[in-house]
Specification:
The complex is a heterodimer of chains A (148) and B (408).
Chain A (H helix, E strand, L loop, with lengths): L6 H13 L13 E6 L6 E9 L2 E10 L2 H14 L4 H15 L6 H4 L15 H19 L4
Helix pairs in contact in A: 1-2, 2-5, 3-5
Chain B lengths: L2 H5 L9 E2 L2 E2 L1 E2 L10 H13 L10 H21 L6 E4 L2 H16 L5 E5 L8 H10 L2 E5 L9 H7 L4 E7 L11 H10 L3 E5 L11 H4 L3 E5 L10 E5 L1 H6 L10 E4 L5 E3 L13 H17 L1 H19 L5 E3 L8 E6 L4 H10 L2 E2 L1 E3 L6 H5 L4 E5 L6 H12 L11
Parallel strand pairs in B: 3-15, 5-6, 5-7, 7-8, 8-9
Antiparallel strand pairs in B: 1-2, 4-10, 9-10, 11-12, 13-14, 14-17, 16-17
Classes of the chains: A alpha+beta (148), B alpha/beta (408).
Chain lengths: 148, 408
């Protein structure tokens, strides 16, 4: 597991995902479900896409304009949840939200995403760190037929 | 002007800390800090003469009424207008909306043109879009010059027989250029165009004389000039205010009405002030203007220019700061740290106790012009110091370490 006490490593991970974001390209495949996450209070403007088949997340894509925190967190999110079931992904999202609210959470579930633990020190940026997660959650609940 | 003495007038400048550092408040274009005298004036109203305005028969109400109207007089003197030309609103946005919905809506027709420019704040664009939807008038954008300024020539080129309204900020909130309005207004008037001035970024920082400018409407907010939030001003030439419809109907603005639906409105400016107004707001604004007058608007203007010049000269020593408005004389500095997304920079400055703003600054179409997704804006006021700019420059120097904000 990633050490929460190595700020240099955490920084490197964030910068790596910011400068080389994974899955940052939308798909034209109509089987992908899309949501636009346009933050009202900052300039993040991301489209999030997910393709679910047999209850398993087959692919996750995103694109748009975002800061370091929103871009890197969404990039890491994609790597975390591809090939997971909807319920597993929702559990990851739940634990991630708990982490940012400074509540107990399961570090093992979040893998690299633990690098965003300290975002809560900059309260205004929690929304950047969760923009992708909220987008994915909206889509997954929609697929599962839950109404939020 | 003794800035160190002035700073003692502000509780927010009295050892205030942010993220463990002394506060450096460089977000004055968003809102200004409030001197103690303004806070006291508001407290005095609540502690000693709370009551509503308009026709109270008892002493306290008389006093509230008197102070509310004295505030109108103070505002009028501040911008060289007459008292009956000063409408209290909730702020610049409400003032501009009142011109749009109260005046333009009833005066514009299909194919009439409203002249705006891409550097305008949302509050000086969106009301006009709405008017266009309702009247089928058209919004036209005056092209900006290479620096992002509106020039007289550009305005001239856009004027034609369809132009009915020109609405323009005297100082842009993103790039901070002061526009030479007097000439532009003169040319516009020669074409019979009504000129609306957004003074939100100018009234707090430079002397304003609406009679000399000869503008038709002038809008500004109290909170950017040491006054409270929730109150602002619309100046209008009296005959234009007479032609402007009330958009806020209710108590205090009518003389009488009957059950058949007949309403007799009061005269301007009272016909626009339906409902209980921001009484504390007007009283606070009055005290704020007295405070600014004591320092002197000319002094404020000169000192801010000096601060801006100093900031530019210090930032030029660095090679990682891109400045977008070097030649703007107002205290607005628009920039980016190289390779740092604007909002990441904003958070980084926060972690060092420096308050700046990042993003589009409510001018969402300007990025197309600057070719950047967003910028950082540091904006100075008369209580800021060169020492604070030094702290800011030092922070810029280490801007590459912006992720520090999350790992300290």
């Amino acid at each position: 597991m990633l050490s929460l006490n190595d700020p240099i490593l955490k920084r490197e991970i964030i910068m790596d995902h910011y400068t080389h974001p994974r899955n940052k390209k939308l798909s034209d495949d109509p089987r992908y479900l899309k949501v636009n996450m346009n933050s009202e209070s900052c300039i993040d403007d991301l489209d999030i896409q997910v393709f679910v088949e047999d209850n398993i997340i087959q692919d996750f894509r995103f694109d748009g304009v975002g800061c370091t925190i929103s871009t890197a967190s969404t990039s890491i999110l994609g790597e975390l949840i591809i090939h997971k079931t909807i319920d597993e992904a929702l559990e990851i999202i739940k634990n991630y939200e708990q982490m940012l609210q400074e509540e107990p959470f399961d570090e093992d579930l979040l893998e690299e995403a633990v690098v965003f633990k300290d975002v809560s020190k900059q309260a205004n940026r929690i929304k950047c760190a969760t923009i992708g997660y909220h987008g994915l959650k909206t889509l997954l609940l929609q697929i599962r037929g839950d109404k939020k | 002007m003794d800035v160190y003495k002035i700073r003692q007038d502000f509780q927010m400048l009295n050892n205030k800390q942010m993220q463990g550092h002394p506060l450096v408040y460089f977000d004055n274009a968003a809102t200004s800090l409030k001197p103690n005298c303004v806070i006291q004036a508001i407290q005095d109203y609540y502690e000693n003469y709370t009551s509503n305005v308009h026709r109270g028969d008892y002493d306290l109400a008389f006093m509230a009424d008197k102070n509310y109207e004295l505030a109108r007089k103070t505002v009028a003197d501040f911008i060289h207008a007459k008292e009956n030309e000063i409408v209290f609103t909730s702020g610049t946005t409400a003032s501009l909306n009142l011109v749009a919905h109260g005046y333009a809506l009833t005066h514009l027709h299909e194919n009439d043109e409203i002249l705006l420019n891409e550097a305008e704040h949302a509050s000086n664009i969106l009301p006009w879009y709405d008017i266009c939807k309702q009247t089928k008038a058209i919004v036209k954008f005056i092209p900006l010059d290479t620096e992002g300024k509106v020039t007289k020539e550009a305005v001239l080129n856009c004027l034609n027989e369809h132009t009915k309204i020109l609405s323009i900020a005297q100082i842009s909130n993103v790039l901070g250029f002061e526009i030479d309005l007097k000439e532009i207004i003169q040319v516009a008037h020669e074409h019979g165009v009504i000129v609306v001035v957004d003074g939100a970024q100018s009234a707090p920082h430079i002397p304003i004389n609406v009679k000399d400018l000869d503008c038709d409407f002038f809008a500004f907010s109290a909170h950017k000039m040491c006054g409270p939030t929730g109150v602002g001003v619309l100046y209008g030439k009296y005959e234009l205010l007479e032609q402007t419809s009330s958009t806020l109907l209710g108590g205090g603005m009518n003389a009488k009405f009957d059950r058949c639906g007949n309403i007799l409105l009061k005269k301007p400016p009272f016909k626009f002030e339906g409902g209980t107004p921001a009484i504390e707001g007007a009283i606070g604004l009055k005290r704020a203007i007295e405070y600014l007058n004591q320092i002197g608007m000319e002094n404020i203007k000169n000192y801010e220019q000096e601060l801006k010049k100093y900031a530019i000269s210090r930032l030029k020593e660095l090679d990682n700061v891109e400045i977008y408005n070097v030649n703007a004389t107002s205290g607005i500095l628009t920039f980016n740290l190289k390779d740092v997304f604007c909002q990441d920079a904003g958070t980084y400055f926060n972690s060092l106790g420096i308050a700046v703003r990042s993003g589009h600054h409510c001018a969402k179409i300007l990025p197309d012009y600057l070719h950047v997704n967003g910028t950082v804006r540091a904006s100075f006021y008369f209580y800021n110091t060169k020492e604070e700019i030094d702290i800011f420059v030092e922070a810029c120097k280490h801007g590459g370490d912006f992720l520090d904000a999350f790992f300290k």
